[in-house]
Specification:
826 residues, 0% strand
Length: 826
């Protein structure tokens, strides 16, 4: 009995210790949860969409400055257009205006750049960019050959105290003086540029050019050579060195110093854009020195280095003319008897010259005829803009094409070059508008989803952590209530029955919550399958895009082959290739556009493939049911707590503490949902405003596109006549070249005939002189019965094969020749 009592006492002590451990552990966990719940509920604030928009605009200025610094002038200009158009004006308006103007200047849009430089100069005279803008305005007056209002800027620059002027000020003034023909004044300004300064090389180059304009080539060469003695450190200085070598080569050419001229030209790097000019001028140096073979080699190299250059027909016809000159020189040496077989024969050179003239004619006759047809038929030049600019328009679809040679020449026209720049800008704007529309659509889809709190990372993290703690609290409360139920076993039966019923409901609710991950996994698997399907579509689209790009590369290679083939293709074959490529280009453009739409829809579909709505609704309902069941069980348990003693009261206190923490977290979650809802209201307003702005921008874009197409068509139409005139000049020169070849060959034949006649006359005279005695001795009747050959009776020398030579001494006198029969041979 004592043993049994001792065992029971030991069991009770152990059970009490175990219960104390459970309560202590729960207390520790609840204390940690309480502290974390307090932290989660503090610092909650609504995301401010307007503040983020302001930050975005300021960031746009910084991004534009970074783009400008890295040479991405198009991107910089596009970002700054919106920045400077803000109302009210931003505090850094002068910065935005200057960088926008400079970006436009660097990308070649000088007229638009002048507008924004003028705004800085007139609206922001206190800006640190004021002087730089004034200098650019003076510089633009020279570049655009428009001196309207330039005196205002010169006066403004002169008003700046000498100590505050930039090092570039005298350089800018010197360039303007040079452009207006004030050479002495220009030299004075160039001398003011400090040695070793940023503009030292440029100022000395202009000073040398000024001396050339004055006719002092010796002084110019001296300054140019001093530039070459310096060390170029910047890209601008290296460019000046290249221009200096080109200038010295020309001066030595004019001074009849060919070796020095060639040495200067060959200092230009073959990767430079001036290399072709240098080669062309080297060829003329050799021509001037009658070194035709060297000139021909240089011209052949030039034709290979840039087969698409507008200089190519001139270069090839110069080569043909040199071959005519070489053939004439070879013929002259041949007539003088000093010909060297290794130098070639005239006939081969004439053949090559005629071949070149014919190839040039055939290469440009079709483009000339196509332009003539377009002009004569008054065709709308705008229909060719897509081919010329390389940009298609949904508003202005076109399918008309012309030979690629004509397109290349039209594209190189100065005004058309500006049209191409404008079209490129419009294309980038169009892409940005389309990308913005896709972004807005994705954002609207995200805002309409159930789990919208994920749009705000900070709030999303807190909401996720609150849900995790609530799940742990629910599990802990269930464990504590089960332990408390054991402790209150002596409570009245009706109370225990109510507790057990509430516990059953709570366990069912907990099972429902526990089953959510399985349901979520099933739905997530469905989402995964959908996203996998979209990924496969996107992968297929990527593969098709690779094929399209490969086809485009092959077409580009075909175009290049048709243009650069050596030996050149015949006209018909070249025309067939160009027409085939032109027919495929619109199809490829359509395929590329369709692929872009497919990939865009794939992204949207992937975004929309989410189980968020269904899972969120189920989870919210299940958690609410569990919380209600826990609350009901806790209330039922409170009626029996007294029956369980201190242990039951301790456990119930912990359950109530957990419920309080859960309520605190629920309030935090509700607050987060409210903040998210309020923020989304503001964001939706912002999105609606942005959509309205985007719609207005699209309309403005379409208006600008229509205007650009109209102006571009006018410019292209004018260029048609310019390029046609150039093609006509090429055709005339090539035809004249063919005639020159024929005349040169005729001259050679005439010279040969004259030489042979002269030789024949000399030989006949020599024979007459040798046989004069016999011919004049009338006592000798050597030709009794013989009729003298034609010409002998009148004293005119007869052909050698008709002259009758006297018989040798001792020979028998020949008998009279028989009279030939009619129709016989003499």
């Amino acid at each position: 009995m004592l043993a049994a009592s001792a065992a029971a006492l030991a069991f009770g002590v152990a059970a009490g210790a175990a219960g104390a451990d459970v309560a202590s552990d729960a207390e520790t966990r609840l204390t940690a949860f309480e502290k974390e719940a307090g932290r989660l509920g503090t610092g909650l604030s609504k995301p401010d969409g307007l503040r983020r928009k302001d930050v975005s605009k300021q960031r746009r200025l910084v991004d534009a400055q970074v783009a400008f610094a890295t040479g991405q002038y198009d991107s910089a200009a596009l970002g700054l257009f919106d920045y400077v158009a803000q109302s009210p004006a931003p505090a850094d308006l002068d910065v935005g205006l200057y960088y926008l103007a400079e970006a436009l200047y660097q990308k070649g849009d000088r007229v638009a750049a002048r507008t924004y430089f003028t705004r800085v100069a007139r609206e922001k005279p206190q800006s640190k960019y004021y002087q730089a803008s004034v200098e650019r305005l003076i510089d633009l007056a020279v570049i655009l050959s428009d001196h309207t209002g330039v005196e205002e800027w010169i006066t403004a620059l002169d008003r700046i105290p000498a100590g505050q002027r930039r090092a570039s000020a005298p350089y800018v003034r010197g360039k303007y003086a040079y452009a207006t023909g004030k050479f002495e004044e220009a030299l004075g300004y160039f001398d003011q540029v400090g040695k070793g300064s940023t503009y030292d090389f440029q100022a000395r180059y202009y000073a040398a050019t000024t001396h050339v304009a004055k006719g002092d080539t010796a002084k110019a060469i001296e300054i140019f050579e001093a530039i070459l003695d310096g060390e170029a450190r910047t890209g601008a200085q290296h460019r000046v060195v290249e221009l200096t070598n080109l200038a010295i080569g020309r001066l030595y050419y004019e001074r009849d110093q060919p070796s020095k001229s060639i040495d200067s030209y060959l200092q230009i790097d073959r990767r430079s854009d001036l290399f072709d000019d240098a080669l062309y001028e080297v060829a003329w140096v050799y021509v001037k020195g009658k070194q035709f073979d060297k000139a021909l080699r240089v011209l052949e190299l030039l034709a290979l280095s840039d087969p698409s250059s507008q200089k190519l027909p001139t270069v090839r016809m110069l080569e043909a003319n040199l071959r005519i000159r070489k053939a004439q020189l070879l013929k002259q040496r041949e007539m003088q008897g000093v010909a060297n077989p290794r130098d070639g024969v005239p006939a081969d050179e004439y053949t090559r010259a005629q071949t070149i003239f014919t190839e040039v004619h055939d290469a440009y006759v079709v483009p000339h005829d196509e332009l003539t047809r377009a002009i004569d038929q008054s065709s709308d030049p705008g229909q060719f803009l897509t081919q010329i600019t390389g940009r298609s328009s949904a508003m202005f679809p076109t399918t008309s094409t012309m030979p690629e040679t004509a397109v290349a020449w039209i594209r190189d026209e100065p005004d058309v070059d500006r049209v191409v720049l404008v079209e490129n800008d419009l294309g980038e704007i169009q892409s940005n508008i389309a990308e913005t529309e896709r972004s807005i659509e994705r954002l609207e889809n995200a805002m309409s989803a159930a789990n919208r709190v994920g749009l705000f990372p900070e709030l999303g993290k807190k909401a996720t952590r609150a849900a995790e703690i609530q799940a742990q609290l629910a599990a802990l409360m269930g464990q504590l209530l089960d332990d408390e139920r054991k402790a209150v076993g002596s409570a009245p039966p009706d109370v225990l029955a109510a507790i057990d019923a509430a516990a059953t409901t709570r366990r069912q609710a907990a099972a429902t919550v526990a089953g959510l991950p399985a349901a979520a996994r099933a739905l997530e698997q469905q989402v995964t399958d959908e996203r996998t399907g979209y990924d496969k579509v996107d992968q297929t689209a990527s593969e098709v895009q690779v094929v399209v790009e490969g086809t485009e590369s092959e077409l580009a290679a075909l175009k290049k082959y048709a243009t650069d083939a050596n030996p050149p293709l015949d006209t018909l074959r070249k025309l067939n290739i160009e027409q085939g490529v032109a027919e495929l280009d619109p199809d490829l453009a359509g395929m590329r556009a369709e692929l872009g739409e497919i990939r865009g829809e794939t992204v949207l579909g992937r975004d929309e493939a989410t189980a968020g709505d269904a899972i969120a609704a189920q989870a919210k309902s299940a958690r609410a049911g569990l919380r209600a069941a826990l609350a009901a069980e806790t209330a039922a348990m409170a009626r029996a707590t007294g029956a369980g003693g201190d242990k039951a009261r301790t456990l119930h206190r912990l359950v109530e503490k957990a419920a309080l923490i859960d309520n605190q977290l629920e309030q935090t979650t509700t607050s987060i949902d409210g903040l998210v809802g309020d923020a989304l209201v503001d964001i939706k307003k912002d999105v609606a405003q942005e959509k309205a702005d985007l719609t207005a921008l699209r309309q403005e874009f379409l208006s600008a596109e229509a205007e650009a197409r109209a102006l571009g068509g006018t410019v292209v139409g004018a260029s048609f006549r310019e390029v046609k005139a150039k093609f006509y000049d090429i055709l005339v020169r090539s035809d004249v070249g063919v005639v020159d070849v024929a005349w040169s060959q005729k001259d050679d034949v005439d010279a040969d005939l004259d030489r042979w006649n002269l030789q024949r006359t000399r030989e006949l005279k020599q024979l007459r002189d040798e046989f004069r005695d016999l011919l004049e001795d009338k006592s000798l009747d050597l030709g009794a019965g013989i009729t003298p050959p034609a010409g002998m009776q009148s004293g005119t020398p007869a052909p050698l094969d008709k002259v009758v030579a006297p018989a040798p001494a001792g020979a028998t006198t020949p008998a009279p020749a028989p009279t030939p029969a009619t129709g016989g041979n003499q």
